[in-house]
Amino acid sequence: MYNKNGEKMFLIYSNDDYLLNKQTKKIINKLLENEYYEVLRYSLIDSNINEIYEEINTISLFNEKKIIIIEDCYFLTEKKIKLHQSFDVDIIKKIISQKNINQLIFTLNSETYSKRLKISKEFELSCKILEVKKPSYNEKIALVKRKLTDNKIKFNEDAINYLLEVLPDDMGVFSNEVAKLIEYNSFIDINLVNIITEKYQNFDIFSLVETILDNNIEDFIKKFNIYVNNNKDIYGFLALVLNGLTTLRNINICKKNAMSDNQIIDLLKINPYRLKVFSNKKIKDISLINDKINLLYYLEKNLKSGLFDSKIIPELTFLKIFN
User: Fold this and answer.
1) pLDDT (tens digit per residue) in 280-293
2) What CATH number is associated with residue 57?
3) Tens of pLDDT along 20-34?
4) Range of the domain at 46
């Protein structure tokens, strides 16, 4: 799909960061098959909008075309997420309406965008919009079984169900752990699943979520240090906490709307076991949960972009979680 000036642009959105990045890379790789592009990445949270606009409209040194990825397009939602102080929606309107030789990919880490907003309607007219949905519980089960069958690996049905109960609802974690199962190349039973997912079971993610929301910094640091010393995996840690916070928030929202357990299971695509565990938690302040989620996403983003050292977690960022 092309904008009114005949140039191709994409808007990709998903509530799973792994799937969002995977789809973005897929489009980039497809474009690179035909010709060379310089690939540049910006964030509307961290980057100056005027610099982004200038980059889009500046010819590169060797006259090369560019693929410009513009992340964190939260202006398309009604979420109160603070963008860079220079952000101006009018500049975004200019970007999507003008003609240039570059390929633009806008990304949004969100389950949806607000179709009520005028700027969203302009994007619908100007961009090819791709929604990357997270697979449901049953779809994940089918996916694991298909991958194991394709690799001629036999398995116990209960072990596959147990795997999904233990893992956090994060497709990056899911993909990594399924790959580990395949690497073992042996019969998959509950014992093998326990071995592979040990780090997720030996760590009480729910008590960690509570320390964050209770502003209990001493208990949080203690539990975090235990996790890191045992697992050496900061990305796994962030995935666990973000998944726990997001699930807890969504369940609380559903409960406030008087939804039944069956309705919540159907809407959130959550298995009954996880719903039962989260429903027993007493934390109900949705705005507080959202604040913690935003700060942790900020930390994750800066770790992945290399701005923060993944081996030396910036203490100031963690302190902000408890403000």
Assistant:
1) 766 677 887 888 88
2) 3.40.50.300
3) 999 999 999 999 988
4) 9-131
Nearest-angstrom CA–CA distance, 247 and 169? 9
Contact 289/213 with Cβ under 8 angstroms?
yes
CA–CA separation, 123 vs 118, rounded Å? 9
Q: Which of 65, 3, 58 is nearest to 34 (CA)?
A: 65
Is residue 74 packed enough to be buried (19+ CB in 10 Å), middle (13-18) or exposed (0-12)? buried
- With H, G, I as helix, E, B as strand and everything else as coil, classify residue 69: strand
Question: Closest by alpha carbon to 209, among 255, 244, 177?
Answer: 244
* Nearest one of 200, 228, 220, 218 to 295, comparing CA atoms: 220
Provide the residue count of the chain: 323
Domain count, the chain: 3
| Residue in 243, 270, 240, 242 with CA at minimum distance from that of residue 255 | 270
Q: Running DSSP on this structure, what letter comes out for residue 116?
A: T
